């Protein structure tokens, strides 16, 4: 789940292009990318696109509209018969929204012969001021496999004129949102996914940012343009050198059972080093 590529639900061409891309997950968008008057059409087009893509449908997800508005149930009723790979829930105010979504999905899964509980969910957890206080509440929340954050809607929620510093970096509140999302995902035991890079032409900047947040603990990133996908996939794929180093640490501790620290190349390796090495290997199925 390295790259999550949005495509507007009212554009057959853009949805098809996204579905044919190298993105790990494609997000057909019924929310921000679709004007209110186009939402009925978008539901029909998303259903048709899902139905036409039986192979690989598990990677075709749908972002529905938020639960505090009038569109969520209509979105779900339209797309669930076509068995999307998963659902993105935007503007979640807390765990209660996920639990309500779980009830809706369970009813629709039963109605359409889908295994109950089999539709996973990614939650956008920082798009409102209220939600910032609940990022640590998702442990054990039904269906949640990943959490991401957003800065544009958060700025709107608090009445900010911008979310950026003069040098282009995120302001404190938005860096806080990024950190709270990461901590919340770690607490819940799910995957942390970085928010979008709006300047889709700045691929060098995207690479630098993706590599940085991966070092921080993020495991993937949202994308708004197919050109961003390869950069994101590369940034979140461990290199051969990283994997070899992680395997070396695991092998050292395996050869010295029961020890808490091991001296190596003038430094000390301890149990947190071992844990990080094991997590890295598990990412690629070697742990």
From TrEMBL:
SUPFAM superfamilies: Phosphoenolpyruvate/pyruvate domain (SSF51621). It holds the Pfam family HpcH_HpaI. Its cofactor is Mg(2+). The keyword Magnesium applies. InterPro entries: Aldolase/citrate-lyase_domain (IPR005000), Citrate_lyase_beta/mcl1/mcl2 (IPR011206), Pyrv/PenolPyrv_kinase-like_dom (IPR015813), Pyrv_kinase-like_dom_sf (IPR040442). Residues 2-226 form the HpcH/HpaI aldolase/citrate lyase domain. The keyword Thylakoid does not apply. One of its GO terms (molecular function) is lyase activity. Belongs to the HpcH/HpaI aldolase family. This is CoA ester lyase.
